[in-house]
Design brief:
Two copies of one chain form a homodimer. By secondary structure, chain A is an alpha/beta fold. The first copy, chain A, has two domains: about 160 residues, NAD(P)-binding Rossmann-like Domain (Rossmann fold), CATH 3.40.50.720; about 80 residues, Dihydrodipicolinate Reductase, domain 2, CATH 3.30.360. In chain A, about 30% of the residues lie in helices and about 35% in strands. Chain A contains eight helices and 15 strands. An eight-stranded mixed β-sheet of chain A has the order 3-4-2-1-5-6-7-15, with helices on both faces. In chain A, strands 9-10-11-12 form a four-stranded mixed β-sheet, covered by helices on one side. In chain A, strands 8-13-14 form a three-stranded antiparallel β-sheet. In chain A, a hairpin with a 2-residue loop joins strand 10 and strand 11. The longest helix of chain A is centred in the middle third of the chain and has 17 residues. The two termini of chain A are about 25 Å apart. The model of chain A has no long low-confidence stretch (mean pLDDT about 95).
Chain lengths: ~300, ~300
Amino acid sequence: MQRTRVAVVGLGNVGRGAAEALAASPDFELAGVVRRRAEPGERVAGPNWEAPAVTRIDELDEVHAALMCGPTRELEPMEHTLLRSGISVVDTFDMHGEPLWNHKQSLAASALEGHSSAVIAAGWDPGADSVIRALLEIIAPTGITYTNFGPGMSMGHSVAVRAIPGVADAVSITLPAGYGRHRRAVYVELDGSRPFADVKSDIRRDPYFVRDETDVFEVDCVSQAADPGHGVVIDRKGASGRTGNQLLRWEMRITNPSVTGQIMVGALRAGLKKAPGAYTLIELAVADMLPEALEDLVKRIV
Amino acid sequence: MQRTRVAVVGLGNVGRGAAEALAASPDFELAGVVRRRAEPGERVAGPNWEAPAVTRIDELDEVHAALMCGPTRELEPMEHTLLRSGISVVDTFDMHGEPLWNHKQSLAASALEGHSSAVIAAGWDPGADSVIRALLEIIAPTGITYTNFGPGMSMGHSVAVRAIPGVADAVSITLPAGYGRHRRAVYVELDGSRPFADVKSDIRRDPYFVRDETDVFEVDCVSQAADPGHGVVIDRKGASGRTGNQLLRWEMRITNPSVTGQIMVGALRAGLKKAPGAYTLIELAVADMLPEALEDLVKRIV
């Protein structure tokens, strides 16, 4: 099989997970890593991969697709450029609702121009969990779905705390509080410029935290609380036809960046099979996200 | 919205579940029920539906699709006839592997001829569980998936026991024995023509039971053990990239015929959107199985 050459854009935790997943796949090849700073001739490596690091994707040979592994709002201009030049992309756009729909519409235009495809919001949530939420409603159309995250580190919340004056470093843990509600546990390392009580009060008033019960702890070393593990439980109790008490549950205990990178690889596989456009995971068939031939897959897994 | 008129073929438990699900849907209308025996002008009803019962589908007006709610091997000739005449179908073909692939290939030919579509194996397993098994491998491509059924009544196994001489009635319950293995508990009502020990020994030697540990109980009234509830737990422990210990689980506690009928309705919705052909659920996008407009769905559920 001719492997499709793919670039990883961004080399944080998710970028490393994506590189690892690409290298472990039978149908893709890691063409290289695009990062803000790279020395000429620099190479980077992980447990099962080794690749050139460059600052511009056109420094890499024959790239057919790119996994966008960074904050989508920062990477969005580059996504448009890539799509217009015929390079398909996958991202993990992490907002729901209106912004997600607008992002889809906007990328679709560039994808049509460049005859390429974008798969957006293709992490674990939004992403795999979105497919689950759809499936739950297919099985039991009336009822309520509860998505319960954690325990696990929230990157967005951690970054928000680090921006507060007086904070040297911070980690925010999401704790499930039952039926879709969450608590936050924030571990902060102070820089000594402000008292803990002021920092704590600022955190609790931050838009990221204001709606949730939030405990703040001062610690000597935040890195001791960091752990890439995360999880989710999605529960639905609903009715099929008029028959109630259908009890459905999805549960994951996962290494966040590894699973995110792996789902992006599956999303890319399906995206490359679609007509030019921008897609969320619920618009793609799961069979298209796997490398096996359809006949083998139907015989083995259905 | 113009509702699509759909016939239910077969009025056993699944047929009643399918009628109930169609009647509860915003986009379909139950055109009628096709059954082996029906009096002229007969009408049948359920909690939220009421429809004519006929022996031949062409006695119903304007039928665009049919849900095949009976043993697929019996209904297969009729599926071909319907597909060739332009009526799309959904079935719950319940064999895996080679027979499933052959069934797909065979129906696809008729569907192409009649510009119609077939969605096959569209119950909960194969069906919804198949989508889950695919998703589990997308998230963690290496590892092992265990599908654990029950506790719940197995129709196939119950029918097999009823065919054994000396048995007046029987129910076979599937019990999960862990990591994909199952035990069977068979409740039999004897007709008095043979001793219990002989019947028990025949059951245990039957191809349906020979591989599983099977307990057989003599009871006065089998119907007391009957319950339409069923369940499944699908577990996967696998690796994303090279990172192990990804723990994934899907669990359902369901009313078997209601959920089966409901999934068939979702499958039909997606089948009607596809090019002529025959499809399993893993080849369809979950978004296409729901009645909502894509924009609303993306904003609400992704």
